[in-house]
Records
---
Amino acid sequence: METWVEAYLRQITTQPDQVAVKRSEGARTVVLSVTLAEEDRGLFAGRNNRLLRALNHAAGFAGVQSRTRYVVALAD
């Protein structure tokens, strides 16, 4: 899943070489922390986090069959 998220973010950001995804696992939850360039963070933080919420929905659908909850979050 983290390779898909990273590939997707590299396609839509202005500085794709600064995209990094870190995976943290819990019992049934996987948190994907995304690090972006400062100007690309505005793309995700603007308009009530619409892009980040859409990415979370897509990741959530991917984990339905394996009963794993994927959460995509912006790293500080």
---
Amino acid sequence: MSLIYRLASRNLFHDRLRFIATVVGIVFSIVLVTVQLGLYLGFGRVVTTMIDHAAADLWIMPLGTKCFEDPSTLDERKRFQALSINGVAQAADGLLPWNLVEGSLDALAIPGAVAIDRSYFGRLGVSGIGDSAEIRGHKVEVRAVTNGIRSFTTTPYVFTTLDRGRTYTGISANKATYFLVRVSPGADVESVRRGLKANLSDVDVLTTAEFRDRSRSFWLFGTGAGFALFAGALLGMIVGTVIVAQTLYSSTKDHLNEFATLRAIGSSSVYIHKVIICQALISAVIGFCFAAAIGVIVVAATADTALPIVMTPALTLVLFLLTLLMCVISAVAAIVHVTRIDPVMVFTR
């Protein structure tokens, strides 16, 4: 294997400009795939951020609700019906803010108090605790500040008391969008859900995991956003494969005499194929290292944006294997060309 590696590396580094072009092609491809798949993961997390941070075992929602942002409402009477079901300990109709960096939850009890994320200060025209603003003609005052609670839409999240929230959004006093159910200690969640579905009409009763999957599926696939991200990743793979294939093919073509010599002295086709594949793997490893470094920078730069790019260990491993596969596939064209070499050409030079 040491000789194979030596032959492969010398073939690659003999023409440095061509090798640089190969690495650039791999880097471009993998960075593009990283961004697209990272956006996919980031988008999947952002669209369910409220669901993930809700202290609920079950969600009661209007029948056919597609995602968390669906504006349909329920009658307050259904909450009391839910509380009458055996095993239901609590049925709330509100979410609490998290990641508080200034103020407190108790401060929201002050008339007109709201909590907002500090990333929206500029958009909402405030600068911190004590600043005032208006929501649909109602004066509000910032009494708590969060960090990292961002909406993937253009509308920021604002937290306040339930009654004021209904007033600010124009919802009737007896209406709510969701009821968050907590089951009693020791109670079976599935049994409670069956009881809720049997006694409540025109509602969906979902676990947190089911509602998360439904919301994510709607935004990623129901709106076409997921397809667009996958299409971008596929484009990056195709571009990278073509560039690497073309470079390896050209490199092999320029070294046909050397490969013919190897054939003439008794080297098998398998041995030569290993040299070409080794060239592809060397290019893959070097290109992936550069792409990974750029990916880390991109992830850090988007960490505080509305749609961060997410990198996980599993995704990094997938990208590395994808790089190897892409480069090996690219080597096929060169291998096919080499298999047609006639060793006699060495003696005709």
